[in-house]
Hints:
The protein is 56% helix and 18% strand. The protein is α+β, with helices and mostly antiparallel strands.
Amino acid sequence: MPVERGRLQARMARYIAFAVVVTLLASTASIVLYRFYSSRQALETSAQDFAGLVSVPLIQIADMYGEWGLKDPVSIGVARLMDLNPDVERLDLARLDGTLMFSASRDAVEFWPWDGPSPKISDTGLYGQVRSRVESAVRVEVAGRTVYRVVVSDEEEGRFLAMALVATFNYDRINQQLRRGLLIMVIALVLGLVVTERVSTALARGITSNLEDLHAGVRRIRAGRLDERVSIRSADEVQELADAFNDMTDDLQQTIGRLRQANLELQALDQLKVDLVANVSHELRTPLTALKGFLELLDEGELGELAEEAHRAVAVCRRNVDRLALRVEDLVQLSQVEKAWPEDLASQPIDLLELISMVTEVYEARIRSKNLLFTFEHPSGLPQVQGNPEQLERVVLNLLDNAVKFTSEGGFLIIAAEECDHEGHAGVLIRVSDSGIGIPPGELVRVFDRFHQVDQSTRRRFGGMGLGLSLVHHIVEAHRGVVWVESEVGTGSTFFVWLPCRSEADQL
């Protein structure tokens, strides 16, 4: 499957950029959060110190207001004290019973008479802090905001009223610093991402360029250019990989050369064997014909009367000569089929239903003798195939002969023919099924080899040279067809032969 160029480079660039951005994000976030928490801690420490320092001046100012009722000097003094700390939001002075004496914010100072009615602290938590007369500092939520509240009590000897200062500080300045830090972090991340993308692409290109050279070498090798080599001088693992690839290519080239030579030798030996079998088969035909002829004359008494024992001996010789003649004929047929190309075969339109019916008539007696249940399944008509009738007849004969031979008495035998498409081409499928001994799974791939039998006991029990299925395979392939088998030991076998229709034969 083709792969888009540059994908590895882009992936490596993304990995590098991701690592840098994550590192930058983590470090920036750590700095911002550290500054935020340290600034808040510094604010709270400063707030406590501020509240402790201004509590005495504020109470003195309150005494001034209580004795002389001077509001303006008090307001000015409170404002000056609040200016000392930019984070202070509110200063409240209250008696220990919770009544307020005055409340000061950045905008105004509100007074209440010392001896008149004045509001009380409504916050129960704050009221408890004031009543406890213990200096305390806590973070609280007020109107959806977090503030820092410090309570400082004063019970100076000689003062007729004990009072407490409630100082409220906000985190606005700290939050503003945090937002500014986050903004700087975002800007830094964007800039870092842009810079990292450029740098990581350059780094990835330097790495992947060597891998692309190696990939190009692999493609050249795959195209059959075994003399090609990859040249990479990176002084790293990629160069080691390229060197290993070149060594592997050298070994592969040598191995392919040896295999080609061995294949040529095997082809020569195979051709020598084919020629030997063909020559021996043809040479045996003449003496076998002479033997058969003289044995027939002897058996029929044309050469003189024979004793009973001589008649039996001649009959045994005739049977064995007939068997030998059949084997020689198989060898001759195999050699002819192996040498013939499809265009060399004498071809004509063939009605397979008629051909199969003729073959089954030949085996009708053997089928009845073994009490086999025989069925021929076919439609009313089939398309004609193009081929050599004698060769295709031998295909059906050999398959039917094996089915009858390997099926025990009382078994069944089915021949079926039907129209069937194979790889988009119209054709006819012949199926020969039996309830015989079956074929082990490991032998299915070799069942069509020449001279192959499942085991020696099969040869001793059923005879034969293992040429029948090899002949079937070569004849079917010569007719541009396909043959295969399905089998289960102890259940039986089914052989399939697909042949193209007459109209499709020229297209294959």
